[in-house]
Every structure is written in structure tokens, then in C-alpha cells.
Design brief:
- By secondary structure, the chain is an all-alpha fold.
- The chain folds into two domains: 14-67, Homeodomain-like (Arc Repressor Mutant, subunit A); 80-214, Tetracycline Repressor, domain 2 (Orthogonal Bundle).
- The relative contact order is 0.10.
- It starts with 16 loop residues before the first helix and ends with a helix.
- Helix 6 (99-115) runs antiparallel to helix 11.
- It has eleven helices and no strands.
- Helices cover 71% and strands 0% of the residues.
């Protein structure tokens, strides 16, 4: 999938003047241009000079606002995933850990990826580049998720012989892998098939396979 950079005025044009006078507009222009380029090329292969050109600003302005390309990458992650973090946190904070809560958390992640293909691409680039930058919100969400798993294990709703991180990463990986290979997998089905119906079939299968595997057995 090719993602075209968002066009912005040339920094020498009069149209670009208000952007330079407005720090927030400048930040948005930089973030929009950088996100489009990172989605297409990854962070490592995207030079600051290209971001500056597409944003219609100078390289010095990028360093002024973000300090480094790595910091810019981190800020884009924060912006892109903020909505999902808020939804998932609210869900996990709503009640004690249970099998049903984990099912709802899995569905929320699946729906997020389904609605935002660019997020899937962004997460794939993170894996390719071995991004070790964990956002504070991301780390907090992992901790909260594992705490809810431990509560469900203590209540006897989940198997206690499986590490909480394995359960959390398990459902995250099953959802993400589907959307990373979805276009290729859809070729296994006849033309005219409803992609959303296939999504629904996959999600239902994952919920059954995964959650029947993590519940305690007699």
C-alpha cells in the first residue's frame, strides 16, 4: 500500500507564512508530513530533509519542535494510538478481571485495527525496525491488562499456569497478524465475498480457539 505524503506549501511561498508564525500549525504540518513518510518508508529510511520539504519548513524548525527524528516518531505513535489507548483503558478500568472482560478487550483491539489500516502499517514498521520505544500510556496499558488477567486467574476464570504476558500478547498477536496479511488471505475466497463477513468469521474463530484454550479444564 502506497501512502502519499500530505502536500504542504513551499516554505518560500507566501502561502506558507502563517504556518511559520503559528507554532501549533507548524507542529501539525511536521507531524502530518512525517507520519505519511514513515508509513511509506519507515523511520530509518526517511531523512529529516524529506520531512522538512513535505512539511514546508526548515530542518532547524523540526529540531526546534521535536529535537530528533526518534522523538518525532514517538510523538506520532502517541498521536495515532491515543484514541485506542483511551478506549482500552476505560474498558479495563470498568471492572475486575474476568473472561468476559478479556473477550471485550480482544474485540476492541480487533475493531481498532479493522477501522484504521494505517495503524496496522505503522505497527508493522515498528516490528521491522525493532522499535524499542514504549510509550508511557502503552506500558501502563500492558500493566493494567496483566493485572486484570491475574485477577481473572485468581477468580478461577483463566488458567493460572499461563503467564499473564502470554495471554495479553497472544490475543494482540492474533488480531494484528490477521490484518497484516488480510489482503493476501482474501485471495483464498471467491470474488464478490464480503471482506467484513470474513473479518467476522475470523474474529469469532479466534475468540473460540483462544478463550477455550485459556479457561481452566476439569
Amino acid at each position: 500500500m502506497s501512502v502519499s505524503p500530505t502536500p504542504f506549501p513551499n516554505p518560500t511561498s507566501t502561502e506558507g507564512e502563517p504556518k511559520r508564525r503559528d507554532p501549533e500549525a507548524t507542529r501539525r504540518a511536521i507531524l502530518d508530513a512525517a507520519e505519511a513518510l514513515f508509513l511509506e518508508h519507515g523511520m530509518a529510511d526517511t531523512p529529516i530533509s524529506r520531512i522538512a520539504r513535505d512539511a514546508g519548513v526548515t530542518k532547524s524548525l523540526i529540531h526546534h519542535h521535536f529535537g530528533s527524528k526518534e522523538a518525532l516518531w514517538e510523538e506520532i505513535k502517541r498521536r495515532r494510538f491515543a484514541g485506542y489507548f483511551d478506549v482500552q483503558r476505560a474498558l479495563l478500568e470498568a471492572g475486575p478481571g474476568s473472561l468476559e472482560l478479556l473477550r471485550e478487550s480482544t474485540i476492541a483491539f480487533f475493531r481498532f485495527l479493522q477501522a484504521d489500516p494505517a495503524a496496522v502499517r505503522f505497527m508493522t514498521w515498528r516490528a521491522i525496525e525493532e522499535d524499542g520505544l514504549l510509550l508511557d500510556q502503552e506500558a501502563d496499558l500492558y500493566e493494567l491488562g496483566m493485572a486484570r488477567v491475574r485477577e481473572a486467574q485468581a477468580a478461577g476464570e483463566l488458567r493460572a499456569d499461563i503467564a499473564p504476558i502470554a495471554i495479553v500478547k497472544g490475543f494482540l498477536g492474533l488480531c494484528l497478524s490477521w490484518f497484516q496479511t488480510r489482503k493476501m488471505t482474501m485471495r483464498l475466497f471467491d470474488d464478490g465475498v464480503d471482506p467484513e463477513e470474513i473479518d467476522a468469521q475470523y474474529l469469532e474463530g479466534v475468540l473460540r480457539l483462544f478463550f477455550e484454550g485459556v479457561i481452566p479444564h476439569e
